[in-house]
Amino acid sequence: MPILLYDSTFDGLLCAIAKAFKYNYEDVTINDKSLGQLSLIDKVMDIETDPILSKKMYERIASLWGSLTIENIYKAYLYPETETLIFKYLYLLTKEKATPLEALSHVELTLLDKRIQCVSRDIHRWYGFLRFKEVKPNTFYAYYEPKFDLTNLIIPHFISRFPNQNLVIHDTLRSYAALYNQVEIVYHRLEKLNLDLLSNYENNYQEMWKEYLHHLTIKERINPKRQMAFMPKKYWPFISEMKN
């Protein structure tokens, strides 16, 4: 079975998939070359990332099966070691003329669908659990450590909610941030931010928010197990109301 190695980028993955179709491979393995997997038996090909080829593949997928299919493929790409399943998905769409929904329900792609849903759930939860702090007038900062590299997927949601504010979403696990300046999104390397820079009002806002929630709470109806089902403990360090 041929093994195609790519450079871990989404563009690189699309190029690897394009090459698999070009050589008419039905059974193929696509791996991230940084994992260092080698084979003495199988044919190994190092795929070069070509932005033009990647763009063509992207546009072809979008034109044939829509933006939702592109979105699902990208979510699957974020889940480690899912590249070969993504190829199988596109192979079914192309060779068997299946619809995107039919292909995802195929017995061989059950795992792919589960991984897409896993990434989707994490995105949805961060929509609700991300907390912004004012670092200077009209500039709001949030940090988090998502299991998957979600920043470019979640920032459009917050831009649509707060279009007239400057936003910084900082992935402290991967040491980079997305900065929105009310015009464009810029991605920048960011190791750590000194939270002593918080505006004079921020601490007061946080205390008022905690006090507000405290007064809303009905002690007799507190259910820790139910709370953890909707708000898993791994999110608590990033939620101001869960801090003492």
From TrEMBL:
InterPro entries: DNA_repair_put, DUF4130
Superkingdom field: Bacteria
Residue ranges annotated for the DUF4130 domain, each copy included: 81-241
Protein name per UniProt: DUF4130 domain-containing protein
Annotated organism of origin: Acetoanaerobium sticklandii (strain ATCC 12662 / DSM 519 / JCM 1433 / CCUG 9281 / NCIMB 10654 / HF) (Clostridium sticklandii)
